[in-house]
């Protein structure tokens, strides 16, 4: 009877982990158009959910450099920042997180919102982030990527 109780407890724990993991995957699933393994925001005005999913895609997933570059104004030259942030893991589960919130502004091909990045044991980073619509795709601006490099203290040049 004791073994059955232990097995039941283990199965319950596994089921809970699977449920939480599945829910987290659904929450961060791309809400904009893209092929599997890619992400692009192509609607005329991005939503906070679009922008939040894009930031998660850039620094919380192991997506290809090419897929990440398609979401950044600096393209392949800027993707080193996204790759570095993913690899150090400070701003993704289990140590950290990111959230895009308002207030937002929208003016033609420029959109702004606020980014709050958290990591265990450090003060939150809060910054105004700018996206540019280039060839019909919303991309994280070079200026915002460079501000992120400075805020996090990465030792890399912003020459993209």
Order of helices and strands: HHHHEEEEH
Number of helices: 5
Mean pLDDT: 81
Uncertain regions: pLDDT < 50 for 5+ in a row? 1-31
Output the CATH topology. Nuclear Transport Factor 2, Chain: A
What helical percentage do the residues reach? 40-55%
Class of secondary structure makeup: alpha+beta
Topology (SSEs and partners):
Layout: H1 2-27, H2 48-60, H3 65-69, H4 75-88, E1 96-107, E2 110-119, E3 125-134, E4 137-140, H5 142-152
Antiparallel strand pairs: 1-2, 2-3, 3-4
Please characterize this protein's 3D structure.
Helices cover 43% and strands 22% of the residues. It contains five helices and four strands; from the N terminus they run H-H-H-H-E-E-E-E-H. The chain has 160 residues and is an alpha+beta fold. The protein has a single domain, classed as Nuclear Transport Factor 2, Chain: A. It has a four-stranded antiparallel beta sheet. The model is unreliable at 1-31 (pLDDT under 50).
Give a brief description.
The protein has helices at 2-27, 48-60, 65-69, 75-88, 142-152, and strands spanning 96-107, 110-119, 125-134, 137-140. It is built from five helices and four strands; from the N terminus they run H-H-H-H-E-E-E-E-H.
What would the keywords be for this entry?
four-stranded antiparallel sheet, disordered N terminus, alpha+beta, 43% helix, 5 helices, 160 residues, 4 strands, Nuclear Transport Factor 2, Chain: A
């Amino acid at each position: 009877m004791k073994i059955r109780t232990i097995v039941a407890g283990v199965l319950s724990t596994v089921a809970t982990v699977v449920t939480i993991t599945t829910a987290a995957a659904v929450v961060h699933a791309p809400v904009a158009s893209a092929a599997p393994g890619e992400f692009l925001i192509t609607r005329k005005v991005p939503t906070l959910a679009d922008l939040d999913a894009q930031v998660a895609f850039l620094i919380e997933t192991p997506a290809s450099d090419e897929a990440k570059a398609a979401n950044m104004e600096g393209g392949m030259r800027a993707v080193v920042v996204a790759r570095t942030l993913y690899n150090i893991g400070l701003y993704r589960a289990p140590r950290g997180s990111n959230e895009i919130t308002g207030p937002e502004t929208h003016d033609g091909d420029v959109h702004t919102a606020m980014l709050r990045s958290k990591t265990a044991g450090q003060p939150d980073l809060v910054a105004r982030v700018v996206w540019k619509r280039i060839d019909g795709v919303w991309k994280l601006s070079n200026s915002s990527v460079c501000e992120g490099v400075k805020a996090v203290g990465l030792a890399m040049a912003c020459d993209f």
